């Protein structure tokens, strides 16, 4: 993967940061996208470089198409065309459906679905033209099973499955692939912020009896980004400790 240009949305923290670091270990050129956490994004850049890669931090709110197009131009200026796009940026605004406002619904769908739409539109030609173009979308176990208080998030994550498989059909004409990784509960701020009681329940319901680590997701994403996954497309790969068994 040496020298490949990879764009990781939402890589200032959490799973995205783990993916960026792992790509750094593979000597990739990594665009570390973030929205608000500038300092954290620069720390990710340092980690990628310490790991052996090259990186830039690029601010863009993925819900804003103009900002995403400006990000693409920055990536082109720094590294040239992208080979890999990882749609990872995400938020949750959990509330029981009966109390959910339209704003909470829209905000979550916008980041996950409009965000994936904007970024994939912006980098589609790059991925299609790359010899080993890769689109990788981060969904969630919740997209398959639903989850109490997450009607907005589960709907967005389920949408990512259809998006991934459709893009797999369309990108296949160009010899590029589109796959999805569906993590279970991973130890990041998104999960750490949950009440201890809920975290204990999640551990109990997970056959491997623990939360996942960002590196365990990053490993699968890097495999999909590499030429080792060349005949895999349209797949949804679970990384969930057996939580759905
Ligand atoms: P996290 O630590 O909160 O990281 C979220 C990242 O997304 C941050 O870098 C954040 O950047 C970025 N982001 C949020 N809104 C954005 C926007 N509008 N534009 C650009 N960047 C934006 O959460 P995480 O757990 O690593 O989640 C990463 C992805 O994995 C998400 O898609 C999430 O749904 C998915 N996932 C997580 C879990 C889990 O258990 N943690 C499980 C399944 C799936 P700023 O801080 O700079 O805003």
Give structural notes.
This protein is 50% helix and 15% strand. It contains 9 helices and 7 strands; from the N terminus they run βαβαβαβαβααβαααβ. Helix 4 (102-129) links the parallel strand 4 (84-87) and strand 5 (134-138). It is globular and about 45 Å long. The mean pLDDT is 97. It has helices at residues 14-25, 38-51, 65-79, 102-129, 141-145, 151-172, 189-192, 196-205, 214-225; strands at 5-8, 29-34, 54-59, 84-87, 134-138, 177-183, 236-239. The chain has a 7-stranded parallel sheet, with helices on both faces. Helix 1 (14-25) packs parallel to helix 2 (38-51) and helix 1 packs across helix 9. The protein has one domain (5-186, 214-230): 3-Layer(aba) Sandwich (Rossmann fold). The chain is α/β, with parallel strands linked by helices and 245 residues long. It starts with a strand and ends in a 6-residue tail after the last strand. It binds NADP nicotinamide-adenine-dinucleotide phosphate (NAP). NADP nicotinamide-adenine-dinucleotide phosphate binds at residues 9-16, 33-37, 61-63, 88-91, 111, 115, 138, 140, 183, 185-186, 188-191.
